[in-house]
């Protein structure tokens, strides 16, 4: 299976594998204040490739660490070699929460109709699970719980596909997903491929970590790379199996993918159900 980071692509047609744990040479770690690097490390995250972004800092190319998370950091004990993980913070559903999502269409800062169709597909995947939370695409950003925006041209050129953060301490989903607008034109992805990436980002927004956060080489290849539990936590979800296995269980939250369609697996459904059916 070809593998590339779900948020870092480069010349896939030439068969090259690119790994998101690599440092960004145009924004080296030594440009980040040392105290921030030390704090990220103390939280349990791998600071390699850390980038300063508008929302705070981006690690592993798709996870946003906000200043709020940095201020409230504490270290949790990791649980290695288990499949599904959540963050400490989850979305408060009250038994029936509707999360509204807005995506702009057209223009330099908007997305094509393919992206809109992909978002509708991603939403339908979640809503088909009959969770205590659901998603709804809306026509205005005013009051929307999650807003899609375009990544900067610089990030798009560097192969970043998207980024999102984790729920806040007050039980709200993370409010912004930044997406590359060239997934279709440059990488040839269709509705289902883009929907899979969107669903992954939405998973972060409601509290899911990478399935193989403890060893990204499971889905990405290369050397062992642990993202760390961090102050956001990496809590094992009961009922999910030990050991991530991308050859037989292509979880939507694996770090790397081949860019194809990746609907929820049975283990994904177990994790979603434990999190958001009669729990939060």
Task: Detail the topology: elements first, then pairings.
Blueprint: E1 4-5, H1 34-42, E2 51-53, E3 56-59, E4 63-66, H2 67-71, E5 85-86, E6 97-102, H3 113-127, E7 133-138, E8 146-150, H4 153-157, E9 162-163, E10 176-179, H5 191-205, H6 217-220, E11 235-236, E12 256-257, H7 266-276
Parallel strand pairs: 6-7, 6-8, 8-10
Antiparallel strand pairs: 1-12, 2-3, 3-4, 5-11, 9-10
Descriptive keywords:
280 residues; alpha/beta; Collagenase (Catalytic Domain); 23% helix; 15% strand
Briefly note the structural class of the backbone. alpha/beta
Work out the helicity level. Answer: 10-25%
The strands making up the biggest β-sheet line up spatially as: 7-6-8-10-9
Kindly report how far apart the N and C termini lie: 36 Å
Shape: globular
The count of strands amounts to: 12
What is the helix tally? 7
Strand content: 15-25%
What's the rounded overall pLDDT mean? Answer: 78
SSE series: EHEEEHEEHEEHEEHHEEH
CATH-assigned fold name? Collagenase (Catalytic Domain)
| CATH classification class | Alpha Beta
Q: What is the count of distinct domains?
A: 1
Radius of gyration: 17 Å
Multimeric organization: single chain
Query: Poorly predicted ranges (pLDDT <50, ≥5 residues)?
Result: 6-30, 74-82
């Amino acid at each position: 299976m070809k593998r590339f980071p779900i948020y870092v692509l480069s010349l896939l047609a030439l068969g090259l594998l690119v790994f998101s744990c690599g440092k960004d040479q145009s924004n080296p770690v030594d440009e980040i204040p040392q105290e921030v690097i030390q704090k990220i490390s103390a939280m349990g995250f791998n600071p390699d490739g850390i980038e300063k972004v508008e929302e705070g800092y981006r690690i592993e190319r798709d996870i946003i660490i906000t200043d709020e998370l940095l201020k409230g950091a504490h270290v949790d004990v990791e649980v290695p070699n288990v499949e599904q993980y959540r963050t400490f913070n989850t979305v408060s559903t009250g038994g029936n929460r509707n999360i509204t999502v807005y995506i702009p269409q057209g223009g330099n800062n908007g997305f094509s109709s393919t992206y809109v169709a992909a978002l509708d597909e991603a939403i339908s995947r979640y809503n088909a699970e009959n969770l205590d939370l659901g998603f709804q695409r809306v026509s205005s950003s005013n009051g929307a719980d999650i807003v899609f925006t375009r990544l900067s041209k610089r990030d798009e050129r560097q192969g970043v596909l998207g980024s999102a953060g984790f729920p806040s301490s007050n039980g709200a989903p993370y409010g912004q997903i930044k997406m590359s607008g060239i997934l279709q034109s440059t990488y040839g992805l269709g509705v289902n491929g883009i929907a899979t990436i969107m669903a992954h980002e939405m998973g972060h927004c409601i509290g899911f970590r990478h399935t193989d956060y403890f060893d990204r080489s499971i889905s990405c290849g290369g050397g062992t790379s642990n993202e760390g539990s961090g102050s956001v936590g990496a809590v094992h979800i009961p009922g999910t199996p030990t050991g991530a296995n991308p050859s037989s269980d292509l979880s939507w939250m694996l770090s790397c993918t081949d860019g194809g369609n990746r609907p929820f697996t049975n283990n994904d459904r177990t994790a979603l159900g434990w999190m958001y059916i009669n729990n939060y």
